[in-house]
Amino acid sequence: MAMVLIEDPRRTDTAFNLALEEHCLMNLPIGEDYLLLYVNGPSIVIGKHQNAVEEINTDFVERHGIPVIRRQSGGGTVYHDPGNLNFSFIRRYEPRYFNNYDHFTGRVAEALRHMRVPATLNGRGDILVEGRKVSGNAQAVRRDRMLSHGTLLFRSNLQDVSQALHRKPGKFVSKGRPSVRSQVVNVGNYLPSGTDMEAFRAALLGHLLPLADKQPHVPSRADLEAAEALAREKYRSWDWNYGRSPDFELTRSGVVQGQLLEVRVQVSKGIIEQFGVAGNTSGDVPVEMPAHGLTGLRYHPEDLRDRLLHLGGAVAAQADEWVKLIY
Description:
Layout: E1 4-6, H1 14-27, E2 34-38, E3 43-46, H2 52-55, H3 58-64, E4 68-70, E5 78-80, E6 84-92, H4 101-114, E7 119-121, E8 127-129, E9 132-135, E10 137-142, E11 145-153, H5 158-164, E12 171-174, H6 197-208, H7 221-235, H8 238-243, E13 248-256, E14 259-268, E15 271-279, H9 288-293, H10 301-311, H11 313-317, H12 319-326
Parallel strand pairs: 1-2, 3-4
Antiparallel strand pairs: 2-6, 3-5, 6-11, 7-8, 8-9, 10-11, 12-13, 13-14, 14-15
């Protein structure tokens, strides 16, 4: 299959790149097959049907200011950074290609083997190297078009991957689709030490597009403006990234002002519908105040912190401890 490369605009804004991907899927002439490659800055990308908070270490994410962004396809949660290369195949939808990862991801694995990386596929569409995951993949169908996209850990910071995706303790009851955690490794470990991202990208393209004789498709100014508008309205919005999470109930225990407490939070469409707290109430923390004061809020750390500060007294004095426990 001959493909047209969508020339990477060299942006590392995850929201913009996901928006550009969606714009290309919905608007490019579908008589062609396309390949888009891009690199994102530090970010967490969750599947369309996942619960954002259930998938991440909220303390690590908030502390480092890492955006959490929902993509248009299913699948599990992945961590992106400048050491990760993302690829997207766009083509006309045919039933025989949906859930057929061999047709898409198999080409990437073949390219890696051409670079002497011992890559294989598993039954979920992942690419493995010596049993460890280097690529997770997902698909989406829109009318007569389809997308098959994935990640490639090249030289990612695997410590950040582990910390960002290490869920905080707590019991979730949710209809979200939890990720399947896997051991991971960087492809760069199997390549010559001087191989940088540009060289890796060029080698990948050299295998995926050996017969391409057409000029790359360079997004027009109108394409880029449309993608930026979509990024602003959708991929940077709280409503899409968090509000679209399946309803859930979270129970978590922790210490606030020396008291061991248990909180129970029920969230629907990203809004706190019920909140309860129980535990040793012999101290001077007015345990009932948060219970009466947090319903109706977005389940968001800044909203929680602002409300707790507004409540005043001992609750306000321990606002950060409350937020860490609740969120």
